[in-house]
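INTERNAL AUDIT FORM
Audit reference: QA-55
Scope: verify that the stored structure record matches its stored sequence.
Auditor: D.O.
Record contents follow.
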Amino acid sequence: MHSSPQYNMQAYREGLHDGIPIGLGYFAVAFSLGIICRSSGFSVLQGFLASLLNNTSAGEFAAITLIGAGASYMEIALVTLIANARYLLMSCALSQRFAPDTAFVHRLGVAFAVTDELFGIAIARPGMLNPWYYYGAMSLAIPGWATGTALGILAGSELPTRIVSALSVALYGMFLAVIIPPAKQSRMILIVVILSFLASFIASVWPVLATLSGGTRTIILTVTISTLAALFKPIHEEE
């Protein structure tokens, strides 16, 4: 892999260019996350730091929701681990794209912000991955996510209650946008999604599980449903 300053700067500029739409998208989604942060009792600074240090939409949303519900540290840790488990696989895939002589500090720096979108543009590049390309994309994506969250908290403090309630729904729309495309392509995924909704409702009214906290029910349902789906309908991938 080339390592000259000129080559790295070129890769960084390309990363900045490709990171523009990601940063804008993160800003819009994080604005809705900020509304959720405010309802969970976060200050502007707390919300900004939370998003600056946690570059994950589903995991951060789950953690903030549980914090607002008064969940225990163990519940928050387990739900966040489950929600972010896919990043372990993405990190393994990215590590194979680095040149063998890539320094550990660069691998650690890229690992700080392994997200779906950043992973997508990085893995699509031909040849070995220059970490400076990833840094360029991160330079816009991370500030967009953190700033959007902070402004969402500020807006939630000033906007009327009805508008705040309407904006808070936008984040759920993002999750629907994540599950609908794969559900349309795979009947099994569609069945799992439908069963998840039904099981979540049943667990909320069934006396045996209704007494548990929302975080604990989420852990039980996620592990149970995903395990059953993997056992009865495993996905076989060819090399």
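Auditor finding: record pair retrieved intact. The chain has twelve helices and no strands.
Action required: none
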